[in-house]
Amino acid sequence: MQPVSEIAKSLFENDRVRVTEVRSKPGEKLPMHSHPNYLIYALTPGRYQITTPDGRTEILEQEEGQIIWREPETHEVENIGTNEIRSLIIDLK
């Protein structure tokens, strides 16, 4: 995931991994982007909606300290909760 705004900030990248910090306030949306296999490390609890290019949606809830495995995908992400969501995204190249 390339940094797309103040929401996503690249912290580290090499030929094997990319680590991005995401800080998303309620109602903020990351535009369509793609990931290889990746992990989400939840720094705060949160609720967000993922929308794929074909319009399918999925609502995810994360708890502080939770690690979530995700398969490669293209999506946009919207914070539909009531608090700022903070996560580390670890893309495996």
Walk me through what this model shows.
The chain is mainly beta. The chain has one domain: Jelly Rolls (Sandwich). Helices cover 0% and strands 61% of the residues. It has no helices and 9 strands. The strands form 2 sheets. Strands 1-2-9-4-7 form a 5-stranded antiparallel beta sheet, with no helix packed on it. Strands 3-8-5-6 form a 4-stranded antiparallel beta sheet, with no helix packed on it. Strand 1 (8-13) and strand 2 form a beta hairpin. It is globular, with a radius of gyration of 12 Å. The mean pLDDT is 94.
Architecture blueprint of SSEs:
Elements (H helix, E strand, L loop, with lengths): L7 E6 L3 E8 L4 E7 L2 E5 L3 E6 L5 E6 L4 E4 L2 E7 L5 E8 L1
Antiparallel strand pairs: 1-2, 2-9, 3-8, 4-7, 4-9, 5-6, 5-8
